[in-house]
């Protein structure tokens, strides 16, 4: 029974990693940018939620505002920092995103506070329900449900809308998409918008179980999401989702099952497994259609 | 309809196109022929906006397109079918065609145009839900042309449509090009197979080392000594 509870926790953490990894992968597949400032989108979303709640906006509306905040922040990031660098090589783009990330962290630390700010989540979210012998937390279950809804929603968008199809095409051959008369700027803006929305959702799910925002909030989960995108295959959307769930599940299960004297080595064990995966499949578990970018 | 004057293309220090002039009238098929590396594809890339021209003008219906982004040039009705077809291999035939028609709103009109094109290229109807990457070279060329036609081009530019195709398929592709002309499409055709190009074209320009060395009606060029010796092997 404990195992079932742990499994729920594992899949819920995996869901957050998957959403973050997917956001990174969408942007990478289209502009070849590994966005290190993705974690700051999560943090921004957390602070927007905090501010909105402080102003007395109801919880559900505050969540919507926080999601919109992350999406707009992502689009603004592209406009201000990445658009002038369009066409630059992967390294320059990577360094630009490092700069954006460091800058935002300092702004959060000096402009808001370096200390964690508590967020009052509704009581039902942090409580649990007993199903016979099993007690399941509402937070993790909500997290799993929403992650799955977001993944299905994104899949439908990519499969059935013209913009979604154009994004899949742009990941393989951007020039020809432009030859079809589809604006490059709109495709890139949509990619950032989606990645921001996913980061915002991940932030909400992260907060549902931790209930505090601090300037470094996005760092650890996004670091894990990077690992997930690499395991899955850089630029591959399905790979990012698979990598995210895999990493979350392995982390939580190791945490639960390892004897306490080996527990401090958990991350070392996980990262060794990542290296092993990459030695067997250098392009990841599900390689991207267009490997020439990476 | 299209008037190109002193168009130049540069890749770093390499001058790929050194100021060529070219004119295409409405309803014509004009061929741009020449050896590998003569600057044919670079000329089309510059007209389509994929590569910004280093100099010169590209006037289309009285407006200068030079330097405008590719997506805007497509919306003006100048559409390139790039060399090597470059269909989206990971998308289905249906999705490829949908992107081709993405610039035009109005679902009903797009569906009607698509039905007409599927009548013209029946093989695409058979493979409608199949991924483009599973099609053969000739089928991919049909798809690339149909995809470009979905945007209702006024001027269709074809870059080496015969490349890598078996001879009987080349004939089919060229029959299609002739059929397009009958639908009122103006064509600028780049082709290494000079004999084939001159057979279908109204006029032609011969490029060598980034310069236009000869220009005239297809019949005159087919009869000229230079073309016969250099390109037709006679």
Brief summary of the model shown:
With 294 residues, chain A is mainly α. Chain A is 73% helix and 4% strand. Chain A has one domain (2-114, 135-293): ABC transporter involved in vitamin B12 uptake, BtuC (Orthogonal Bundle), CATH 1.10.3470.
- At the third CATH level, what is the topology name of chain A? ABC transporter involved in vitamin B12 uptake, BtuC
Number of strands of chain B: 10
- Poorly predicted tracts of residues of chain B: none
Total strands of chain A: the figure is: 4
What oligomerization state is this entry in?
Answer: heterodimer
Rg of chain B: 17 Å
Fraction in helix of chain B: 25-40%
User: What percentage of residues of chain A falls in helices of 4 or more residues?
Assistant: over 70%
User: What is the CATH C level class of chain A, in words?
Assistant: Mainly Alpha
Number of DSSP helical runs of chain A: 12
Shape of chain B: globular
Largest sheet strand order of chain A: 1-4
Biggest sheet of chain A, in brief? 2 strands, antiparallel
The name CATH uses for the topology of the domain at 2-86 and 155-230 in chain B is: Rossmann fold
Distance between the termini of chain B: 34 Å
Second CATH tier, the architecture of chain A: Orthogonal Bundle
C-alpha termini separation of chain A: 43 Å
* Beta strand % of chain B: 25-35%
């Amino acid at each position: 029974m404990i195992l079932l509870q742990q499994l729920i926790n594992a899949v819920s953490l995996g869901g957050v990693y998957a959403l973050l990894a997917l956001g990174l992968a969408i942007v990478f597949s289209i502009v070849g940018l590994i966005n290190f400032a993705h974690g700051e989108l999560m943090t921004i979303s957390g602070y927007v939620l905090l501010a909105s709640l402080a102003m007395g906006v109801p919880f559900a509306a505050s969540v919507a505002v926080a999601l919109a905040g992350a999406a707009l922040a992502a689009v603004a990031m592209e406009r201000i920092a990445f658009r002038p660098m369009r066409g630059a090589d992967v390294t320059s783009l990577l360094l630009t995103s490092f700069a954006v990330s460091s800058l935002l962290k300092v702004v959060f630390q000096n402009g808001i506070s370096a200390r964690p700010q508590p967020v009052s989540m509704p009581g039902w979210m942090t409580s649990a329900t007993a199903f016979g012998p099993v007690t399941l937390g509402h937070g993790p279950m909500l997290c799993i449900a929403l992650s799955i809804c977001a993944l299905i929603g994104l899949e439908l968008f990519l499969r059935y809308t013209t913009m979604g199809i154009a994004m899949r095409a742009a990941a393989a051959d951007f020039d020809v998409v432009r030859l079809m008369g589809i604006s490059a700027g709109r495709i890139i803006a949509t990619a950032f918008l989606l990645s921001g929305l996913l980061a915002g959702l991940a932030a909400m799910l992260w907060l549902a179980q931790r209930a505090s925002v601090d300037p470094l909030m996005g760092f650890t989960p996004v670091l894990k999401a990077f690992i997930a995108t690499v395991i899955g295959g850089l630029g591959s959307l399905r790979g990012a989702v698979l990598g995210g769930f895999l990493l979350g599940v392995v982390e939580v299960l190791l945490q639960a099952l390892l004897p306490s004297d080996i527990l401090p080595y958990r991350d070392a064990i996980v990262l060794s497994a990542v290296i092993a995966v990459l030695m067997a499949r250098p392009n990841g578990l599900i390689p991207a259609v267009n490997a020439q970018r990476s | 309809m299209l008037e190109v004057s002193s168009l130049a293309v540069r890749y770093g220090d390499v001058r790929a196109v050194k100021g060529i002039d070219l004119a295409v009238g409405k309803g014509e098929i004009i061929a741009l022929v020449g050896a590998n590396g003569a600057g044919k594809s670079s000329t089309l890339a510059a007209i389509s906006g994929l590569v910004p021209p280093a100099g010169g003008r590209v006037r289309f219906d009285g407006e200068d397109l030079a330097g405008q982004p590719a997506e805007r040039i497509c919306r003006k009705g100048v559409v390139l079918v790039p060399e090597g077809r470059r269909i989206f291999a990971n998308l289905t035939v249906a999705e490829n065609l949908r992107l081709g028609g993405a610039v035009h709103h109005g679902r009903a009109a797009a569906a009607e145009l698509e039905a007409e094109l599927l009548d013209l290229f029946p093989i695409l109807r058979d493979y409608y839900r199949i991924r483009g990457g599973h099609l053969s070279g000739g089928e991919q060329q049909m798809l690339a042309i149909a995809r470009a036609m979905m945007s209702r081009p006024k001027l269709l530019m074809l870059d080496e449509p015969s490349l890598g195709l078996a001879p009987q398929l080349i004939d089919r592709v060229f029959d299609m090009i002739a059929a397009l002309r009958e639908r009122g499409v103006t064509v600028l055709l780049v082709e290494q197979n000079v004999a084939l190009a001159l057979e279908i074209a109204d006029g032609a320009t011969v490029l060598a080392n980034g310069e236009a060395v000869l220009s005239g009606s297809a019949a005159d060029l087919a009869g000229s000594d230079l073309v016969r010796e250099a390109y037709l092997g006679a």
